[in-house]
Amino acid sequence: DLQICQHRTPTCCTKKMEESYLAAVRRERTQNIQALNFELKYMIVGHITAFQEAFESLLRFAENRTSSLFEAAYRPMAKEAAGPVKELFTDLSLYILGAETTVESAVLRFFDSLFPLVYSRLINPGITDLSEDYTECLRLTRQDINPFGRYSKNLVAELSKALWASRMLSQALSLGMEVINTTEHAALARECSRALVRMQYCPHCQGLTLIRPCAGYCLNVMRGCLASVSELDAPWREFVSTLELLAGELAASHDPEAALAGIRNAVNEAVLHAQLNGPQLSATVDKVCGQPKRQEGNLSSDTIVPVKEVTEMQTFVMAHTSLNNKRREFINYMKRSRTFYASIAERLCDGDLVMRDSSTCWNGEDVV
Predict the structure, then answer these.
(1) What is the pTM of this model?
(2) Alpha-carbon span 139 to 129, nearest angstrom
(3) Greater confidence, 59 or 316?
(4) Domain-embedded: residue 299
């Protein structure tokens, strides 16, 4: 009653043993592909981790520099500016990690939140009634009167260009992991499972427990089983080329380090521009939003919460250099993995599975 290991001579197998063999080849095939994938996955996961850690370090550094600007130059609004600054860098972090947001929306939302503070603490420091309605009116007015001049748009352009490649690289690495995980757990077709049993276990039914498959026979079976996986060869080569391109962009014109570190200066220039145009801005705001209550004198300094100046430039530069070196190593490794899916059958048939240095081997029917 055997369905797979049918043979002319007597056999020591039963149908139940064939079912055990079917379960075994499915398990072994998954384990063998996992073993092949291990190094590739290890490299990609390692780079994803290094990439995210370096970016978090870079974002923290840039956020601290931007926060310290308000403490050093614009003390009356330092405490209240902390929230919008934190929100800006959180949004940029989410963008890099692939969230459905844009650099433009993050930056413009930041300047929308900043304008009421600049207007009420620096341009008109006597305002006492900063109600929710008046604040919202100031936020909306920012979009029409453009108090920060070209600096807000310049910052959008600079960050969009610099962070695009980082976002794409982050998404590409995640996609690479998804592809590898999917190929590990792809279900075996019924005919493939039976072919693997004939190749690996049917000799046992004849008492030939030490004989192994012929190399050519193994390749034919594996190529048939992995035909769908082998079709990934062309897309995988293109994927590796894309990683090279993105790494090159990061190293050249899309350097996120300079762009994020430059946020402080861009914000400073924008606030200065608004202050210089204070009288014109006040005239326009009074027409649109009305005149709020005022008092003489400025905010007392005891309401200010100092922002600690963080001096971690050296640590940051070292982390950035380390990331660049790791990226180069990673891309060189990925170049060598171009043929990963084209050669997967050959590598599965390598090693102990097939008979190499012997005059006899199993061809699916008999010992030859």
Answers:
(1) 0.75
(2) 15
(3) 59
(4) no
